[in-house]
Fold this protein.
Amino acid sequence: MARLDPANVAIAQEIIARYPRPKSALIPLLHLAQEQDGWVSDEAMVHIAELVDCTPAEVIGTCSFYEMFKREPVGRYLVNICTNIACQLLGGEELLHHAERTLGVRAGTTTPDGLFTIEDVECIAACTEAPCLTVNYRYFYKVGPADFDAIVADLRAGRRPTRCAAEQGEDGEIPAHGTLHRVRQSIPADRRAGNADPDTAGEPAWLGAGGAS
Amino acid sequence: MSEETTVSSGPPPIVRLVTRRFEHADSHTLDRYVATGGYEALRKALAGSPEAVVDEVKSANLLGRGGAGFPAGTKWGFTPPGVWPRYLVVNGDESEPGTYKDRQLMERDPHQLIEGCLLACFAAGLSQCFLYIRGEMALAQERVAKALNEAYAAGFVGRNILGSNFSVDIVLHWGAGAYIVGEETALIESLEGNRGMPRLKPPFFPAAIGLYGKPTIVNNVETLSNLPWIVANGAEAYKQYGSETSPGTRMFAISGHVKRPGVYEVQHGVTTFRDLLYSPQFCGGIRDDNRLKMFIPGGGSAPWFFEEQLDLPLEARPVGAAGSMLGSGAIVVMDHTTDAVRACLRVVRFYARESCGKCTPCREGTNWLETILQRIVDGHGRPSDLEKLLDIGDNISPGPYPAASWDDGGLDAVPFPPRQTTICPLGPSSVAPVVSALRRFRPEFEAKITKRSVNIPLHVEREGTHV
């Protein structure tokens, strides 16, 4: 795929400017590349290295550590099924097994039509709603085999799955893989306090005599 | 024992401090937050001095809610004098198995967290704040981003907050899927754009040397979410809830085989495990009125508890003395139908998968534990396997497990100095389920080893063509 497009470069510059050291923006920028292409390509990593002023080797070093970054294309919908202890107790492993059987692929692989990738994942912090799964990181709670089939049928038909859906944000849509939060932080220039440079920043003003004035 | 239960008049009254806005559908908006007393604590703090806020928090004895249970006010005091700048890093990388509270606080009351960050920065002189949210939590990121944008526009965050000389930026940062990043020095590595591997200790606290080599306070989401209430209402009001050594309230997620699993905010230190598991206002008992087999009291890293520990209060000290920890407020309940070996394998597998690979005993040991447990579950266990499991555990966390805890300074839950051959506690965490299960359910392991049959792996069809 490709380097970041001009619109995303502008977003990347804004993100980089929020950190005292540019390399801190590496993970958000890798997410940005994944949002653009659905996965993280070598070209994107080379581009990110240029943007944060480090080597491409350092970028892939970081990228390869984190599970969410896919360095090859995945399905349009990444279905993460939790099998950790709380979900295991209530049928998480059976749910994963059902998913593998009905979609015809093993965990970690993608259906031939490129629609679904299923993964056997660790605790996703919805333990009281077990068994749970996420589709492109949108939550579904208390999912049984029949619920799973309904969710998959909806996604195949291009409908928004409502069965077992947890609160999904403002519009409830499930964006393509790679898009996480759809509201970006944006700091107005006149409201910015500015970065605290590790080399030059001194004692904060409000700590002086009498505190805030 | 029986005397206590007969005079007991049920659990202490329910008090909601950090979850009190959850009843509103729009609890995540600035309008609702301000309408329900939001940012009043910030105004109050700015009218006084940073020292006043520190004193209030110290006096409230607010204990960290991330796992170690260290007093927040004391932690702030660990920054070396005269070294600038200092940073605040918010640990929102909730991923301990069973834990489900920080995500709720971020999704449903993001402004409370933001105000908590501001109070901490003001009090401890922290010049910039990085709010690190777990990568998988898209909605939490979205809600916090929106809340930050609202708060900047309204003048609560950024330059000259509310017209004062207090200026601080809060930067939303998000991870990409790694449990180990919840360890505070790994969190800092990740925030610097590196692989999330814990740093060598000492220094034990990044308060001395942290982000960019500068003093850094790392606080948990729930800890910070408590600050607005404490500053607004005062330490005395806070201390009327909970116990003397663990004041206030705490959020617990109870999952597994209970009738009504859920996230409950309860009075800290006075409510017991029995209250949470059996009281009708909380979980209402074990599902199908089954018998309790075991429960994990504080997330996957905590040694297991059994029926005889049910009457312990939810407080670090007694739980630590009983050989486990309250950890991150995650209770996983298992009834008598649970296969202890399989449950043990699943928790161990988590640590094997999440080991960052930096320390050999953890990288190799957790995988060996998983391999051996898997073959026992699959029906290929060997008679020597049980001793081998304990021996591998001993190489990661030498000596009797759990290591004796100290009872000084609130660190009851974390043995100190840690009795481990690794930099961070992830490795020893994998030993907890093994020792717990083997100590209590050894015959179940032995039965699987001697029977050598019927333990068909889940992925093999029981009926049909594969067998």
Remarks:
- The longest helix of chain B spans residues 426-451.
